[in-house]
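ERR on first pass: missing label on line 2. Operator R.T. fixed the label and resubmitted. Corrected input:
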Amino acid sequence: MEYVCIEQGGVASATDFLAAGITAGLKRSGALDMALIYSRRPCVAAGAFTSNLFAAAPVIYDRGIIAGGQPVRAVLVNSGNANACTGERGLRDVEATVAHLANLLQIPGRQVLVSSTGRIGVPMPMDVIKGGIAKAVDALSEQGSQAAAEAIMTTDTRPKRLAVELSLGGRRVVIGGMTKGAGMIAPKLRMQPPQATMLAYVTTDAAITPAALHAALAASLDQSFNRITVDGDTSTNDTVIALANGAAGNPVIEEDTPEFEVFSRAFVHVLSTLAREMVLDGEGVTRFVEINVTGAQTDEDARRCAEAIANSALCKTAWFGADPNWGRILCAAGYSGIAFDPARVSLSMQGAPVVKNGLDAGTPESQLAELVAAKELRIDLDLGSGNGQFTVWTCDLTYEYVKINADYHT
Amino acid sequence: MEYVCIEQGGVASATDFLAAGITAGLKRSGALDMALIYSRRPCVAAGAFTSNLFAAAPVIYDRGIIAGGQPVRAVLVNSGNANACTGERGLRDVEATVAHLANLLQIPGRQVLVSSTGRIGVPMPMDVIKGGIAKAVDALSEQGSQAAAEAIMTTDTRPKRLAVELSLGGRRVVIGGMTKGAGMIAPKLRMQPPQATMLAYVTTDAAITPAALHAALAASLDQSFNRITVDGDTSTNDTVIALANGAAGNPVIEEDTPEFEVFSRAFVHVLSTLAREMVLDGEGVTRFVEINVTGAQTDEDARRCAEAIANSALCKTAWFGADPNWGRILCAAGYSGIAFDPARVSLSMQGAPVVKNGLDAGTPESQLAELVAAKELRIDLDLGSGNGQFTVWTCDLTYEYVKINADYHT
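pass 2 clean. output:
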């Protein structure tokens, strides 16, 4: 293995990174609701943000910072309020948040990023935010990975974090990360501009050029957050931020080098593991489903087809019922809007043939019913019309999802 | 009023139309599962069918008949089996069905249409079909509207049918219809090629040219079946068929005449009433929601935006919870893929202002909570960016929907 997992790893595992998770008071429950990531050294930063037109105030703000190419030292994340659809006031609140944190950390304001998740359309309670910032700065520690991962949760049931270590140029390099998801999950992340409220943060002590970090993040999205969907809703707040502070002392990683490839594989592992964990912890999820579409005319066609299946309420409820109803899968492919020949379509579940050339492949239904009862279901759909392919990770649609989202507001 | 409702009306209300609904034995429950509509005179016919690539065998067959412009005398409809994804065998089964029915009715085979709804991917049990056809022919009657409407039901909880009468050229003209829906409802009907398994049949004794009947059906779809969505899934079997037998003896209706306009208004009333009934009887529905999007750059943009909201799992569960969570509505508009200025968006619910210029309009949440608890909810979203507009009729997403669709197969 080029990289190995670090026990209890997270965003504070890389050298010279600290993290905190505290209760500011934004959640009525009194649970942790504010996380802070801080680097003792300036970081190269890369970001990807929601493509939703109603991008939240912190997303608008962060895009500007990332686009400016400045070094970054800190990321403040709050749950409990999305600061979305809050207009000019929302932007002023982000600026006040940044100024307050920068002052306490004694760093320039332009080195601070902010993320928010929670209710849309409610102004930020700035007194609560400012009190929380002071607590978070005091709580910063090398042991802060777990608390930070807890503090960014909304309807998540468990914190999602990990870190790996690898060797580059003779030096130990660490890549750590954390994420939250649960609902409004169907990221369509754009580099420098993602979807759902999913938030993800990756910290590394690797020395890497800004262009190489940007390239590593861009290349990883289709293998991680952009291949997942819980409910097809793309949030106003989706954010993925990667920070690299160079503390590992490795020769600076440039694009298109063997070191870049090694780094990128470990980086993709961290992001894809977090993305997969996010689906497994999606709202009310009982079953993880991987959909591999191949044989489309283009990769984009394969993506549209896989997403139509993944977001079909009928497919998702069938998976909940452990029902091998393959007609619903073909039906969703048929209305996805892409072109293919129905008579050349083949489908398998857990490797067993289900449909061949558009017709029932003859596997006994009792056998299919056993296969689809698995906690993790793999569906392979070959459209037989080209070389385009895409993989989506999704989940079932359950009573619990309906309950969580019918009751969230009240 | 130009037209008035007929008590107990349906597809057998117009002169010289008969109908039947019988138990062929396709449903395990023993419920009615085969309907037959028959006209004593040859009919002008128009049809609209699913845009799903996996169009079912009867859809493929009917498209050919409608495209040929022949007169039509009979429509056979079965529930319990969709005859979709059944390949060449499915098409041969349709042909055998047509031949058997034509023989018993002593009419040419090319005057018969066939529709199916139910499970996908299972061959038609032709012995059952043939036995059912004999029973259905025997049962044809002028009192058959109710039984026919019951026989086409799948997960529907009640039959949906109506008829209206109007005066044209001094003659009494009747337009009757029936529909079924419940799940896989998001028709994207194409004339001469609709979506969900929704089936709808309209019969009239008006004398009308084929071109005028086609035009009346085409113009009515965006005001009826193409504006509804239950779950966003477009079926392999969606079908709307209109038959006009001329028995009323009115002067033949031509396009672009005052008579055509009068006929069309009554025709739209029948289709839109059936479409609305279909949503109200959607799987597990507790709340009907009308979404009016205005101010889009184009009507097509308005449609995409309205459908994104209508198909959002988060909006639908909020409606189930009677939750005035407007952030989810704006969020769905924001990821719908159309262009508009978020700062110019206004939203109202039941006529009460909710969002103005992208921000909370200040209506107290307690007041909004009361408004959205209505059984029928009206949402008006003005994007402020043009003159494009579209209306969608949809419903909430409930425990019962999940239950019905997780259990349907078994």
